[in-house]
What does this fold into?
Amino acid sequence: MAESPALSPASANDVAPPDAQAPLAVPPARGAWSLSPPENASATGDRIDALLARSHGFDLALAAVMLGWLLLAVVRFRGARKVAPDGGTRRSRAWVLGLALGVFGVVDGTLFLGSEGYLRDVLWNFRVPTEDPRTVRIEINAHQWSWEARYAGADGAFGTKDDVVTWNDLRVPAGVPVWVQLVSTDVVHGFSLPAFRVKLDAIPGRVNQTWFQAAREGAWEAACYQHCGTSHYRMRGVLTALSPEAYAAWLHEASLKAVQGYDADDTAAHWGWVWRTP
Amino acid sequence: MKAGAFLKSLWTTDPQRVARQYLWGGFLFLLVGGLLAMLIRFQWAWPGQPVPGLAWALPESKGALTPPAYTAVFTMHGLLMIFFAVTPLLFGALGHFVLPLAIGAKQMAFPRLSPFGFWAYAVGGALMLVSFVVRLGPASAGWTSYPPLATPAFTPGLGQTLVTVAVLCVGVSAFLYGLNFVVTVVRCRAPGMTWGRMPLVVWGLFYGAVLNVLFVPVLAAATGLLLLDRVAGTQFFIAGAAAVGGGGDPVVYQHLFWLFGHPEVYILILPAWGMVGDFVAFFSRKPAHGYRLTAGAMGAVTALSGAVYAHHLFTSGMAPVLGRTFMVLTLLISLPAEVMFLNWLMTLWRGSVRLTSPMLAALATMVVFGLGGITGLALGAVATDVPLHGTMWVVGHFHLTMGAASFLAVFAGLYFWFPRMYGRALDERLAKVHVLLSAVLFIAVFGGQLVAGYAGQLRRLYDPYQYTFLAHLLTLNRWTSWAAFALGTVQLVFVVNLVRTLGWGRAAEPNPWRVGTLEWTDAGPGAVVLRGPHALSQPEVQEQLGRDWIGQAEPLSSSKPVVEQVAPPVPGVEGAV
It folds into this structure.
């Protein structure tokens, strides 16, 4: 099985294939010292980013109150003469319970509601990719240590002669839902697209799925976040978001190449599964 | 001492001597684990560069960490720190020392289980050390040892097998002291030592011991089945193309592992919480605010601890109904933690604060635990967990809670009980310098990890800068590493203090901290406990005895008994007896 990206069917295309080993031209580094997540390239990522930012706002406020209270108490009451000989009054204990409930309600409540909304609308809402006729489906098979991606090709069915297979080279059209189903051949891997706020385990023996949508054209990195052996740190892929026309042209070309290069005896290359609509 | 007598002294049923054995064992592994941490930090600051002084260990690369060496280093760092350093120091050393004394028990409930547990731990520790130098390499599947990576097909080294056995050994040890502690607290308390008069540290150790008894067997199940997969050709956790014909499932291991692994966080932190609660009261010269609420909150955390574990699996493709359930449960556990934390702050407020070294360490524990807890909130909700999962944010978060907080609590306890343990007083100034610098540097190191993680840096990468979107984090990581090296160096202050004290230290006063708990005011056999652990600054006591504390079993010759401030029972909170 050809494992080198250079031999992938995509290499003969007009769109130059990204070299999975070469650095990417990413936008200027964003604050190494500030709490800023990686650049967002997803159409829905701003919702997570906003929720995270709000959560970290709470974090900062809570930390400030905690530290302030503690320092003030230590400074102000250090070696104080007179202290209460009891473990608080009914009222002071009620205050503790009330304050805890208040903080819990506001901080955890915000996180819960924001998270739940995102889950309902995006993360676990597979109606979006199912119902959108433009949706692109990709099957990803994780290996030690590369991402093998499969596209259905011109006939729209997986596991046929015209399947397009790429290594560490994901191509998607911008502005269209991308529906990913994911397995692993060997160990547990973690498929992540940091710029798309996507993260999902690739587990031998089961198919996991997620979806995302690229907000614009460009190239971003795919990474493995689950320790998968010595070369885990090099399990890097590149995701290129093309214009829908460029994507269609690429897929058409690559699909023709795939039919030409089809080798019936190469059983290892024949994988893929039928998608059941949920 | 003659060899025979020495060997005989190694098997001791005296819990205080077992405690000292665990103390030295824990320190040994803390040292090894800490040095491994320095290697990880070096690698992230200067990827692939030769580590000064390491050429003897890695001659082929002239001392530079190679990817296989690096995976072994972080695997062993995690395993050693959790199983062989922090847990044994908290339970094995401080627990065995203080638990029987503080409840007025004459002995542990099962005295011979204590040395048996210690030797199971020691055998496990020896296997861990041996695993560095065996055929086909040391363990390298991460401390979680997820299969199929941890099976021989992908990690063939004998080291991985030895480490699996070592974890089973330490599991036996943890189960035995857990069982011993639970039964000792339930059955062997001195007369009058009611549940409502136990020091909070006893509550913490008790709850932690309950978790040991409940969940260490789950770890043993996971590890045992993994061991069978490794040596007996079974396929419990092997599925897909990696399995020849098996119907195993790697996710089952993840569930078993985290059903132990998450309560383990509380096993580590509950004794720490107990110490903070006690020390804040002792050194504010004031009863713990809301004692029953605090003990109840610790009980609530204990009860919930096994029900939140699957937030470690939010990205494993779990069913939405499970994901939502565990999100709610995980967020819920922050409520009792807040109650407890506010009680500590209220105890400080209007107290008479004495910044002794145990108090400084307890306050430092509060701060690092607070920061760690706060940074965990975003990991409890599914949507915010997804971008942070598997990044250095998680690493920073759990190092603050179970690394820094339990480390500082170990030192709070050690500085507090050392005079009682060894009859000598550690130098207060050195102890304070050690605690303060450690706390500040902990926050610097793990704060740096939090920032790197928020910027997207994944954990366990040999060379994070392979990814373009992480390349700009090199400077940050280098500064974090410098802070880590400083943190490592600061530990020398403790070593100097320890050596000086054990060699030339002055004899300690019998009750240097002027507190009333039984380990300091042992009234001898048959003593009856009369009051709670924090009877400080009671007016009657000050009037009659001229001091602001009174022993828990010390009678006050007055017609007016010391009034214990009784809080109303909290409905629905377990443990508020």
User: Anything to note?
Assistant: Chain B touches chain A through 106 residues (CB under 8 Å). Chain B is about 60% helix and 0% strand.
